[in-house]
Amino acid sequence: PGLQNQLHETELDLSYNDRYDGVPIPDAYERLILDVLRGDHQHFVRRDELVAAWKIFTPILHELEKKKIEPIQYPFGSRGPKESDELIAKYGYKRSENYTWTKK
Questions:
Q1: Half-sphere exposure of 31 (CA within 13 A, CB side)
Q2: Is 86:95 a contact under the CB 8 Å cutoff?
Q3: Which class for 24: exposed (0-12), middle (13-18), buried (19 or more C-beta within 10 A)?
Q4: Which end of the chain has the least Cβ crowding within 10 Å, N or C?
Q5: Which residue has the higher pLDDT, 98 or 85?
Q6: What angle do CA 33, 37, 38 make, to 5 degrees?
Q7: Is the distance from CB of 9 to CB of 94 less than 8 angstroms?
Q8: What is the distance between the alpha carbons of residues 27 and 38, in angstroms, rounded to a whole number?
């Protein structure tokens, strides 16, 4: 977080205000504007990439609309729906239940 380019290893925890107490967290657009000023293109998509993405996702979105497929609901803050465990189990993976993060 912040505007520095220093690596810091941490868990994937998006509660930045709790995790990085006292560190100013820039607005998403502030970070993008800084990237533009630095000439950093990594957070921007080229036109050909965008066209390719729409070729992939447009048929999927049309199918979801046509069949009226609803997203699977799960509680906010949880690790996701039980169906995700069933999906990864089909491929020989198992989600670890041992990890817990305690709020600082």
A1: 13
A2: no
A3: exposed
A4: C
A5: 85
A6: 115
A7: no
A8: 17
CA distance 92 to 60: 26
Would you say the pTM of this structure is higher than 0.70? Answer: no
Say how far residue 23 (Cα) sits from the centre of its chain.
Answer: 21
Q: Is 14 helix (H, G, I), strand (E, B) or coil?
A: coil
Could you report the per-residue pLDDT of 31-73, keeping only the tens digit for each? 889 889 999 988 888 999 999 999 999 999 999 999 999 999 9
Quick one: tokens of 101? 């993060």
Q: Give the residue among 6, 2, 4, 29 at the shortest CA–CA distance from 16.
A: 2
